[in-house]
Amino acid sequence: MSDQSIQNTVVGKALEVSKQVESEALSVLEDNTLGLPEINKAVDIYNVDTKEVLIFVDGIQVKKQLESRVSKKTATVKATATETTME
């Protein structure tokens, strides 16, 4: 397999999984019988009597994430095509 076909396969599978996860999440959110767990906004993480504390944070720590990614090869081809048409 070429680099491009591997990339296309990975992107296609990721999109497929993403749509499935989105569908499942929406069905859970739309089901009013499930109810969401109560969130404790003040947690004493140093309390020795606490059995378990779950803390969920976004560990990505980026200022802004791109909506889509363009491979270097695709960007080079587009830039070359633009330069050619401008001449």
What is the compact description of this entry?
By secondary structure, the protein is mostly helical. 49% of the residues lie in helices and 0% in strands.
Q: Main traits of this protein?
A:
single chain, mainly alpha, 87 residues, elongated
Detailed description of the structure:
The structure is a single chain. The protein has 2 helices and no strands. Helix content is 49%, strand content 0%. It is mainly α and 87 residues long. The protein starts with a helix and ends with a helix. The protein has a domain at 3-62. The radius of gyration is 22 Å and the shape is elongated.
- How do the helices and strands follow one another from N- to C-terminus? HH
Helix content: 40-55%
Shape: elongated
Give the total of beta strands: 0
Rg, nearest Å: 22 Å
Overall structural class, as computed from helix and strand content, comes to mainly alpha
What does the secondary structure layout of this molecule look like, with pairings?
Blueprint: H1 3-30, H2 72-86
